[in-house]
Amino acid sequence: MNRRRLLIGLVGLVVLIACFQGWRRWQLAHPDRSHTMTILTQDMRTHCVGRLLIDLPQHTTWKSRSSGARIGNLNLSVTTGVSREQFDQMVKKRWLEVQAIKADSSGTPYMKQSERIDHSEHGLILAYAFEQIHVPDINGVWKDQVFHNAEGYFWDRGTLFEIKQKLNGKDDIAKLFPRLRARAPDEIPSQPGLCLNGAFISGFYDMQERENLIWPFQLPRNMGLVVKHNRVGRPQPSLLERELESRGAATAWLNAMLKPGDVYEEHLFRRAQHQIGELIGDELVSGELEGRQEYGYDTSIGGVWEFSGQGAPSPVPQIELNLNARNFDTSYIPSPAGGFPKPEDAPNGPTEAEFFEVWDAVINSVRIRPNALTPPPK
């Protein structure tokens, strides 16, 4: 009789555990998205970010030099609030530095002097370090070829574009200059192209040209948002696939690194597919806690929403949004471990309710800007 009762009890326990695990999986895949709207999301402003439109809370800010992009083989950064006098002084100083570059690191003189190529009154290209190298061409034929470094500077109405050092980039930089212009923070262009902070780069969505963008924002209540999008020729492995594949290796590494007394806990808030309009993406929100009883605990919490992108015949970039709360330092382990601390211990925020109110409002607003993905004429 005792054995029978024990067996029934074990079966009941297994069923209970299975039910709990099933409920937990369902909860992760079906999060509660009903929020009481507060002042945080009552006044959302639409921003042009890359080729996207995203609604962000009022009082969202970003640094004067915040966004960057890769266009073709060129890396470009933007700085706002630069006067014409500051631009002229900067390029004058840089031109003097470039003129002084006369030999390589071994002391071998370069074959010609540095060049300054003025592009209208707003831009210039600096080319330097000219050297002849015996290398194979694209057909495998060895011949002497001349190489150089180039960098570009362009100014328009207070916005400075800097194109980083590029090998043999003189012609590519010259072709990019006519596509650059300043943009007001609330301007939403109607033509195809890419928005950066205070800037616009016109251009069709050309699958033959590489294009990457990154733009970080500072949101109210100590939340940081980073938006990225990358041109891809085909859908990339999904966020949840990559997370699942890496979980085993990450767990093994953590177990090997943890010392006696170390505490590490992870809490999953959400892990599911989340479709926004026609963009079928993945959502992962989690928190991590680490520390020791004698030193206290550090908790980091963040969310990722990612669309894997698609190729021809209707290409769409891979899109990624990351929202992170500031790190929380506590003398205790929050409940759940990896979750938000008590509100009184984080008066500057965000609370769990504030984080998810902003998170859902932001990611659910993501859409492609009209005409942004117009392909080149055939």
Q: How are helices and strands ordered from N to C?
A: HHEEEEHEEEEHEEEEEHEEEEEHE
Number of helices: 6
Number of strands: 19
Flag low-confidence runs: none
Structural class: alpha+beta
What's the CATH C level of the largest domain?
Alpha Beta
The chain-level mean pLDDT equals 91
What's the gyration radius in Å?
A: 26 Å
- Here the CATH topology of the largest domain equals Protein Transport Mog1p, Chain A
Tell me the distance between the termini: 83 Å
- Tally the structural domains: 2
What percentage of residues falls in helices of 4 or more residues?
Answer: 10-25%
Q: Which outline best applies?
A: globular
Strand content: 35-45%
Largest beta-sheet characterization = 13 strands, antiparallel
What CATH architecture of the largest domain would you give? 3-Layer(aba) Sandwich
